[in-house]
Structure formats: structure tokens, C-alpha cells
Amino acid sequence: MYKVKEAAQKLKNGSLVAFPTETVYGLGADATNQESVARIFEIKNRPKNHPLIVHLSSINQLPDWALEIPKYANELANALWPGPMTLILKRNLIAKDFVTGGQETIGIRIPNHVIALSLLEEFRKIGSGAIAAPSANKFGKVSPTTFEHVKSEIGKDLSQDDLILDGGSSLVGIESTIIDCTGPTPKVLRPGAITDKMIEDVTGMQLSKQASNIRVSGSFSSHYAPSAKVALDVEAQQGDGFIALAQFETPHGVTRLISPNTIEEFAQELYSAFHIADQMNLQRIVVIPPHGDDLALAIRDRLLKASNGE
Ligand code: TXA
Ligand code: MG
Asked: Where does the record place the YrdC-like domain (predicted)?
């Protein structure tokens, strides 16, 4: 609690705070402070036109940030927040170009993590209560799911006044589902732990499958990538790293990185496995992607991007 109060004060002073969420760790700044937000882009080497997600602690802050919120978006917010879901909505005046990347929309999320939520609540008492935060990794690299990942990825780029909060391992392990709520029906821009079926159940609507011209950085062809080459569904060779569900035997001569028993564990452990492979200087990671819909589909999405379509 003491640390969280200190962290909220740092945000108010314009410093950065990296913090745990249930999906991945974020690198946070006061979403209304242009200079602080600019430092996030510098540290990440992120192109300026890539919008950031704004994190809030309560649905009653939503009208400050978004306009013309459709009924189905309110239903999603009420049913699934706090949770691993980001809603893209028409922006209100407080959502400036330096957060939205110049777009007329804003991405909002209420994370389901006790440290993230108490940080947001403390920050609301003394400041804007809105934290702009991308995943706390360099642009295009693997999202951190532990304190140690954040430290090794961006620790040296932070200043003395910045802070990293430690919340152990992220439970979900892959980034939030992003849902475009600017059309007549919801549209998934990035799959995640909130599945198509959950969205359809909550809203009673069919998801829009129409192509969208909204930018999502995860939709670049190479993303979420470790330094090691990621190869999907190929025969593993001596010296490779290997990632597969526990039911698959470890091929001879490879380094087994993880053996998840379930799809949930697969998501939870995937980015740690990438980090371990890089620490070991492995050249290649062979992955047997999980089959199925829902979370398995979100994992395959990340694996495809990590493998750059190879
Ligand atoms: O789980 C998550 O979403 C994590 C945690 C920290 O909340 N955050 C995260 O942020 O993954 P980031 O910046 O690494 O990815 C957010 C994605 C980007 O691809 C960005 O383009 C998209 O969200 N995004 C944000 N605002 C948007 C907007 N207004 N319109 C379209 N896409 C947006
Ligand atoms: Mg990211």
C-alpha cells in the first residue's frame, strides 16, 4: 500500500510507473501529462502515431474520456470490467492527440489486478486517475509478464524518479482483447482472453468481421518477437528451444522451455518462455501451437506475429 501511494505521487509528479496487470505489465504515465506520455514513446522507441490505452479504475470515469458510447459497449464494460478487455470508443476532449496518436478514438481498459486498481484509485484521489500505458517492452518485442522482465527490458532507460511495481507473474499472460466499439456492432481488433463468444453472449450481437482501418500495433506483421527465431510446426533440431503442451514429448537434444498442461497455462507462460530462450541465447524456438478457438486462437495470433509469418 505504501509503495502504491508513493507510485501514485510519482505519476502526479510526472514520473513513469511500470505496474503489473492481469494481462502483461504496463509502462504508465499520467494520461493527461504530455511530457510524461512522450517519455513512454522515447523509452519504447514507439512510433508517435501509435495510440496508447488509457487505464481507469471505475466505469463512472468513462464519460470523461469517451463520447457517444453505444449500448453494447456499456454492456461489455459492465459485464467484463475489470478484465482483459480494451474498448475503442469515440474520444472526449480530455483524450488528446499525444495519447490517441492523432486518432479520433480512445482505447480504454479497467484492469483486473489488485495493485493496478489500487494504484489507479490512489492516483484518482490526487490526480487525473487515468494512466496511459502500453506494454512495458521495447516496440515490437515481447511483453513483460514479471517484474524481472520489465527490469531487464527497460530498467536502464528509466530515470531515478521512475518506479517499477512488483506484482509477481501476470495471470493471463497475453495482452487484452481489443474491441472496436465505433461501429453498429462490436469488432475484435486483437484477440485475447475475452473471447468472441463472451462478447456475443453479453451483447446478443454478431461480431462484425468487416475489415477495419483502425491501427493496432499488434497487427504489424512482426511483433511480440523474441531475439530467437520462432518457427511453428516444424521438426525441432538439436539446440533448439521447444514450446508445446505437456502432452507432446520433448524431441531429442532440444531445450524444453515450458510444458503447459492447459491452454490457460500456455498463455500464462508463453512470454516467459521467450524471455528464457533469449537469456540462454538460443537461436531458434520451435513451437507446436495449440488448437482450438478462444484463448488458443489468441495464442496462435501472437505466435504468428512472433514468427513473422514464417
Ligand atoms: O493488456 C493490454 O492491453 C496491455 C496492458 C498493459 O493493459 N497493454 C497493451 O498496450 O498491450 P500496447 O500499447 O502494447 O498495445 C495496445 C494496442 C496497440 O496495438 C494500439 O495500437 C491499440 O492498442 N490501441 C490503443 N488505442 C487505440 C485506438 N484508439 N484505436 C485503435 N487501436 C488502439
Ligand atoms: Mg505492446
From this structure: 1-194
- Our answer on whether the CB atom of 20 is closer than 6 Å to any ligand 1 atom is no
Of ligand 1's atoms, which has the minimum distance to the CA of residue 192? Answer: 1
User: For residue range 22-33, what is the model confidence (pLDDT) as tens digits?
Assistant: 999 999 999 999
Does ligand 1 have an atom closer than 6 angstroms to the CB of 212?
Answer: no
Q: What is the pLDDT of residue 224?
A: 80
- Mean pLDDT value across residues 236-242: 97
Ligand 2 center to 134 CA (angstroms): 6
Predicted confidence band at 38 (pLDDT cuts at 50, 70, 90)? very high
Beta carbon of 127 within 6 Å of any ligand 1 atom: no
Does 2 have pLDDT greater than 80? no
Question: Which of 170, 179, 216, 268 is the best mutation target for the ligand 1 pocket, counting ligand atoms within 8 Å of the beta carbon and taking the most?
Answer: 216
* Domains detected in the chain: 1-218 (3.90.870.10), 227-306 (3.40.50.11030)
Mean pLDDT of 269-293: 97
